[in-house]
Amino acid sequence: MSSLNPYRPGRFVVLEGIDGAGKSTQLQTLVDFLEADGRRVVLTREPGGTEIGEMIRTLLLHQTMRPATEALLMFAARQEHVLQVVEPALLQGRDVVCDRFTAATLAYQGGGKGIPLCRLEGLADWVHPGLHPDVTVLIDVPPEVAAQRIARDNRQRDRFEQEDVEFFDRVRATYLRLAATAPTKWLIVDGTKSAEAVSTEIRNGLNRLLQVPEFQ
Ligand code: TMP
């Protein structure tokens, strides 16, 4: 474990998974892991993370709209979030843990809703040129398992949670394809395991992927 090192550049760690994958239980694992390495950590989320982003989030989760509108609103919220929160934190040497980022748009609006990935990648290039997560942790669960968890929650479902298993199959397949193209930047963990087992897999995987050379 290193001592507090304000000079090391901030690391950008993103958590992804289909609805019901168990992301929220694991966010703290990510924060604890980075803090244990002597880092100051900013925990944030998308869509959201800024005042305007949270307003856009409310629209996205509850108002009916076309897939293109949805994608553009995701990137509108992201623009504010990157400029107001993510980049300033990273530049100050803080680590950023973000609950979803652009991979979610590729998976949900691309894979799930059929918007060509090249269009979304063009928007990503515009909104956050050169900014890519150091590691994206994907909690992978079959949509049937995720659906059972959401049903157990017994609360009003948002627009995305109301999508069917076929939609989440496409979202999941897109996440897995993205992860396969960049294995040094993605960590896939089996979200059907217990929360403790998932935490352990995340910690072990981050240790491997975020290894910092001694001289830093
Ligand atoms: P959350 O429930 O994980 O906070 O995310 C809110 C919902 O927004 C979730 O169903 C996934 C969806 N979403 C997209 O469809 N595209 C995106 O780019 C992001 C960030 C989230």
What does this structure look like?
With 216 residues, the chain is an alpha/beta fold. The protein has one domain: P-loop containing nucleotide triphosphate hydrolases (Rossmann fold). The protein contains 8 helices and 5 strands, in the order βαβααβααβααβα. The protein has helices at 23-36, 51-62, 67-91, 102-112, 117-127, 143-153, 165-181, 195-209, and strands at residues 12-16, 41-45, 95-99, 135-140, 186-190. A 5-stranded parallel beta sheet has the order 2-3-1-4-5, with helices on both faces. The longest helix is centred in the middle third of the chain and has 25 residues, at 67-91. The radius of gyration is 17 Å and the shape is globular.
What's the helix and strand layout?
Blueprint: E1 12-16, H1 23-36, E2 41-45, H2 51-62, H3 67-91, E3 95-99, H4 102-112, H5 117-127, E4 135-140, H6 143-153, H7 165-181, E5 186-190, H8 195-209
Parallel strand pairs: 1-3, 1-4, 2-3, 4-5
Helix pairs in contact: 1-8, 2-3, 3-5, 4-5, 4-7
The structure holds thymidine-5'-phosphate (TMP).
Task: Considering the chains and any ligands shown, give keywords for the structure.
alpha/beta; 5-stranded parallel beta sheet; 5 strands; Rossmann fold; 8 helices; binds thymidine-5'-phosphate; 216 residues; 54% helix
Bound molecules: thymidine-5'-phosphate
Largest sheet: 5 strands, parallel
| Euclidean distance between termini CA atoms | 13 Å
Order of helices and strands: EHEHHEHHEHHEH
Residue-averaged pLDDT: 94
Major beta sheet, strand line-up: 2-3-1-4-5
Query: Which superfamily, in CATH terms, is the homologous superfamily?
Result: P-loop containing nucleotide triphosphate hydrolases
Strand content: 5-15%
State the low-pLDDT regions, or none. none
Q: What CATH architecture would you give? A: 3-Layer(aba) Sandwich
What oligomeric state do the depicted chains represent? single chain
How many β-strand stretches?
Answer: 5
The helicity comes to 40-55%
Give me the secondary-structure category.
alpha/beta
The rounded Rg comes to 17 Å
Q: How many structural domains in the coordinates?
A: 1
CATH class designation:
Alpha Beta
Shape: globular
